[in-house]
Design brief:
By secondary structure, the chain is mostly helical. The chain has seven helices and no strands. Helix 2 runs antiparallel to helix 3. The protein starts with a helix and ends with a helix.
């Protein structure tokens, strides 16, 4: 076989090989691009969710009088770094004012808030449509990112369970109950507020850790 024929066969084989590989290469590039966009969309959604949950935890803690200095400092720090709306940023001066109070003043305000009847807070569920619609595609991300996203989703499910329980107890406070039964219902409702605040704070911490790792 002549050298010219060998060269032609080599180019022919190379062209055939590239033809086979082209769809795979295009698919890999497309998947990488979709992963990047999906990752950005999910982290953006979770950042916003983090702010909503941190302020929701504040509302729950204020209702039961557990918005202590440690929590207020944590909330202020979170909003200073992540508040993206004017409404959230406008909340910061209020937190600074509360933190200027003495520990005794904070305790007095907390006791006053928890003692007020008839001001039950309806706890809220928060949707994560981007995360939920991309659950089936999480396998395409690295293992650590998958694990953290699934953990956040699991904790959101637990938070929703707390909301469902709280709504049951909240509705019961409007029914005619004996004094002991009413006290038991309100105690269960306050426990839901406490669990909600703690779970929400935990989720926010997980979200911030994930966002920092994704940068």
């Amino acid at each position: 076989m002549s050298e010219d024929s060998v060269e032609k066969l080599t180019f022919l084989a190379l062209g055939w090989l590239l033809g086979l590989m082209a769809p795979v290469i295009v698919d890999a590039i497309k998947r990488r691009r979709e992963n990047k966009l999906g990752r950005l969309a999910m982290t953006s959604e979770l950042r916003e969710l983090g702010c909503m949950l941190s302020t929701a935890a504040y509302g729950a803690r204020m209702r039961i009088g557990t918005a202590d200095r440690r929590f207020l400092e944590w909330l202020k720090n979170d909003l200073e770094h992540h508040a993206s709306t004017a409404e959230l940023q406008a909340f910061l001066p209020n937190l600074s004012k509360q933190l200027s109070w003495t520990d005794d003043e904070l305790k007095a305000v907390a006791a006053h808030m928890s003692a007020e009847d008839g001001k039950g807070t309806m706890l809220q569920k928060y949707l994560v449509p981007v995360l939920n619609t991309r659950v089936a595609a999480l396998w395409s991300f690295e293992t650590s990112f998958q694990r953290e996203l699934l953990a956040i989703r699991q904790h959101l499910g637990l938070l929703d369970d707390i909301v469902d329980r709280s709504r049951k107890y909240f509705d019961m406070t409007f029914t005619k109950l004996e004094e002991d039964n009413y006290r038991l219902v309100t105690e269960n409702l306050e426990q839901c507020y406490s669990l909600y605040a703690k779970r929400a704070e935990r989720i926010v911490t997980m979200i911030r850790k994930l966002a920092n790792a994704a940068q």
